[in-house]
Amino acid sequence: MAWLDREIVVVDDDQGILESFDAMLGDDYPLVTLDNGFEAIEYVKSHKPKLIFLDIKMPGMDGIEVLKRLRQDKVDAAVVIVTATTKAHYEEEAEELGITAYLRKPFEVDDVEDIARRVLH
Fold first, then answer.
1. What residue ranges define each of the domains in the chain, with the CATH number in brackets?
2. What is the side-by-side strand order in the sheet with 78-83?
3. What is the pTM of this model?
4. What is the pLDDT of residues 30-87, one digit of tens each?
5. In whole angstroms, what is the distance from residue 18 CA to residue 5 CA?
């Protein structure tokens, strides 16, 4: 499988979370980190990554709205919600939009690596 066929996009407004993903996955996969939903939509539509880790609570456009727009645009990437929120309606809405997984912060490194391995191999 080609290197770019395994591209991962991480979208989170917390620089520490973006750095954590880079440390966990950056050596094994092509990884792009973005800090807002607007950039994410544009990037994903033009680059078509295979896996997206997406935060819910972000300024400007939250992760649920990003996910809705990606689904409207027929983006077929696997999407994993990564969030600190405990509000059940977010998880329900995300599941209705066809997410691959829902991870609560703080998450385990093994969980992230397992998802990447399962989706990309």
1. 3-120 (3.40.50.2300)
2. 31-34, 8-11, 51-54, 78-83, 101-104
3. 0.95
4. 999 999 999 999 999 999 999 999 999 999 999 999 999 999 999 999 999 999 988 8
5. 21
